[in-house]
Design a protein that fits this description.
The chain is an alpha/beta fold. It is about 45% helix and about 20% strand. Helix 5 links the parallel strand 4 and strand 5. The longest helix is centred in the N-terminal third of the chain and has 30 residues.
Length: about 240
């Protein structure tokens, strides 16, 4: 099995965490901001959660946290990341009121059993040292009838598309992207891990978005350097809940 990198500076192959965070923030702002908006709109379309807590695992600089907080103002959206400098940056970047950030490890989630109504993540699973253990934690803290949306890159992305995306990035970002692809999972691998963690009711599939989500983000998509890339060929997702099964 591919050895999976946990620390951000290892993914970028940079010696300093602050430098890696700077590169990741630039990558998010320059290329990935539309993805956070698309995912937030897709979650708003699929989930029917009206109260409680949402947790974004591996929140990075907080892009998805912000987008979800805007779409679910009645919920508390918590961004969780293992890096204190990253959670500090996310807190500084986010002005929405119904958010909070916590520095913690996905392998030891600091929440009570069945206390979280929605668990989401994007682009983080390939960082986790023991995905099976992290998924078991998700199972433990997810509330009855809770909703899950976990998306990430997929390892079997076509080589031609990988090279095309890497060519759009600077040297450090391209290296991080290639390392991420190598450390990512396939649909079949995630399905097996989800079943072993007791989350076999989740759909594991190539990531796609509803017409509604695309329509809401059409201008951002037109402006994005990645607008021509096929999302389903790049990403996969684990999604499910009482309203979608």
């Amino acid at each position: 099995m591919v050895e999976r990198k946990e620390r951000l500076e290892e993914e970028f192959e940079l010696g300093e965490e602050d430098e890696a965070i700077h590169e990741y923030e630039a990558l998010t702002d320059g290329y990935l901001h539309v993805t956070a908006s698309l995912i937030a709109d897709e979650i708003a379309h699929l989930a029917k959660t009206h109260e409680g807590v949402v947790v974004d695992l591996g929140c990075g600089p907080g892009s998805l946290v912000k987008e979800l907080a805007l779409r679910f103002p009645q919920l508390l959206v918590i961004g969780l990341d293992i890096s204190f400098p990253m959670t500090k940056l996310a807190r500084e970047r986010t002005t929405v009121e119904n958010v909070a950030f916590v520095t913690a490890d996905v392998h030891h989630l600091p929440f009570q059993t069945r206390s979280v109504q929605m668990i989401v993540s994007h682009g983080a699973m390939h960082h986790w040292r023991e995905l099976a253990r992290a998924l078991a934690e998700v199972k433990q803290v997810l509330a009855d009838k809770g909703f899950v949306y976990l998306s990430d890159l997929k390892r079997d992305t076509p080589d031609e598309l990988v090279r095309e995306i890497a060519a759009l990035l600077n040297k450090n970002q391209a290296r991080a992207f290639l390392n991420s692809i190598k450390a990512a999972y396939t649909v079949e691998e995630l399905a097996a891990l989800a079943a072993a963690a007791g989350l076999g009711n989740l759909h594991v599939e190539p990531e796609s978005f509803s017409r509604r989500a695309i329509a809401r983000n059409i201008e951002k998509l037109r402006e994005s350097p990645l607008r021509g890339m096929r999302q389903a060929a790049i990403n996969l997702r684990m999604v499910g809940g009482a309203e979608t099964l």
